[in-house]
Design brief:
The protein is of the alpha/beta class and 465 residues long. It is 36% helix and 20% strand. Strands 1, 2, 3, 5, 13, 14 and 15 form a seven-stranded mixed β-sheet that branches. Strands 18-19-17-16-22-23 form a six-stranded mixed β-sheet, with helices on both faces. A two-stranded antiparallel ribbon has the order 4-7. It is globular. The protein binds adenosine-5'-diphosphate (ADP) and 5-O-phosphono-D-xylulose. It is an enzyme of class 2 (transferase).
Amino acid sequence: MARSATYVAGVDSSTQATKVLVVDPTDGSVVREARRPHPDGTEVDPRAWWDALAGALGEVGTDDVAAIGVAGQQHGMVLLDESGQPVRDALLWNDTRSAPDARDLIDELGGAAAWAEAVGTVPVASITATKLRWTSRAEPENADRARTVMLPHDWLTWRLAGAPAEPTTDRGDASGTGYWSTVTGEYRPDLLEMAFGRGLSVPRVAGPGEVVGRTPDGLAISAGTGDNAGAALAIGPAPGEVVISIGTSGAVFTGHDRPSTDATGLVAGFADARGGYLPLLATLNAARVLGAGASLLGVDPDGFDALALDASPGADGLTLLPYLDGERTPNRPDAQGRYVGLTTANATRENLARATVEGMLCGLADAVEALVDQGVPARRALLIGGGSRSRAVADLAPDVLGLPVEVLSPQEYVALGAARQAAWALHGEEPGWTVARETTRDVTDSSISDQVRSRYADVRDGRAR
Ligand SMILES: Nc1ncnc2c1ncn2[C@@H]1O[C@H](COP(=O)(O)OP(=O)(O)O)[C@@H](O)[C@H]1O
Ligand SMILES: O=C(CO)[C@@H](O)[C@H](O)COP(=O)(O)O
């Protein structure tokens, strides 16, 4: 049943929460929004995401909505049995238990370069294929019951349509699995089998403007995508603009005209949601580092920002290596965070806050540098995500990154990208909306980036302890 309604809905099912926007498809303006939290942790029952989505959709109301699209946290392994029920909790992108499996898979294919050439990405623990290997090795009984593997957004999209629907995904999210190739645009069933020991059913990769199904209430459903591809769809970074998303993950990405095949494994050669490419680096340590710093100091986000802004650049020699939850880029799954250089002279709350912000930004600056090393230009950074709401992050970013920075106005860009895709599917062409741009913050002192980042590099590379 198609319906004549006015608006489109976009969903971001991210690590920490489900966010839903109801959007006017004529201009991209947000009409209503709702949010529901997700359980904490790196393995989650996918039904909790469904409950969060149902709750948020109930709150915004969909009587006047004609189409919906879902963007979701990338890479999570949703394994389903014969009857379509989850075999176990989903293992999320930030679960590092499959780090040894990533190393094994790299060896088995003949090294990192072989993976980069085959699919565009060298596996780390985040990549879905490594989670399949972990399950087949550590939980053979669960593996035996598995028939289908999906990603979080695939599963939510499939459930929105109600059973029995054809499972679908899109190239943006499929490109984070390790068994779909950004280079060829095809699944690599041989790599899935190599990881899992046998084949599994996978969702069909739908086209960017496709209607993949309808909800029982008649809303058209678009293909959806991964969260970062969703944000890229909403923002449309120009060549030379790099998006830096400071959420649970730190994600650094931009559109590109060809697939990346970085054998160092730093740059993940993902696809975007339009038919192009989205080279990306993701860190495990971003907004939560700021949260940890604030709770260490016993202050709220505003108090934390005030402290950080009261200290001098370089925090009088105090440096944070921000790998609090292990790290993915660089691949150090067992790493921990470290404050280095503490003396009685610099031991102030202000310096601790400053070093926390600078350390987190230095991790992102490394990511930008790796993108540039792969031939992707970075002349300006666009900051989004919960952590970009921090005044200290916004003020310090240009000098630490060594780049002009625009902090885009606080918006749910991932959900907005999903709404854009829903409007595209509904009307058969991509909408022409653009997001509001902000004033550029220029670098105030180019020596700060050199000074802060070189000290950070010493700590990162073990030259300063
Ligand atoms: N003003 C702020 N200062 C620092 N961190 C913030 C601020 N506002 C929100 N955050 C943090 O941003 C994160 C949520 O950002 P979001 O982009 O929604 O993450 P995700 O997409 O991973 O769910 C939380 O860790 C939250 O504490
Ligand atoms: O793993 C990646 C990208 O490769 C992460 O970016 C996830 O997609 C989760 O994003 P957030 O929930 O932190 O926004």
